[in-house]
Amino acid sequence: MARSPFSYIRSGFGFFWRALDAGRRTILNLLFLALLIVLAIAIFGGGAKPIAAKTTLVLDLKGQLVEQTSASPRDALLTGVQGGETLRMLQLRDVLKVLDAAAKDANISGAVLLTDEMQGGGPAMLREVASAIDRFKASGKTVVAWGTNYDQNQYLVAAHANEVYVHPMGVVMIEGYGRYRNYYRDALDKLGVTVNLMRVGTYKSFAEPYIANGPSPAAAEADAYLNNALWTSYTDNVEKARKLPKGQIMKSIDELPAKVAEFNGDLAKITLAAKLVDGLKTRDEIRDLMIKRGAADDEGKSFRQVGFEDYLARQSEPMTGDAIGVVIAQGSISDGTAGPGSIGGDSTSKLIRAAREDKNIKAVVLRVDSPGGSAFASELIRRELELTRAAGKPVVVSMGNVAASGGYWISMSADEVIAEPNTITGSIGVFAILPTAEKVADKLGIHSAGQPTTWLGDAYNPLRPLDPRFVQVMQGSVNHIYADFTARAAKARKTTPEKIDAVAQGRVWTGAQAKERGLVDTLGSYGDALASAAKRAKLTGYRTVYIEREISKFERVLGMVGGTAAQAVGQSVANAVSAKLNLGVTAATGLPPGAANGVAQDMAWLADIKASRKPFTVITHCLCEVP
Question: Residue 87: pLDDT above 60?
Answer without folding.
Answer: yes
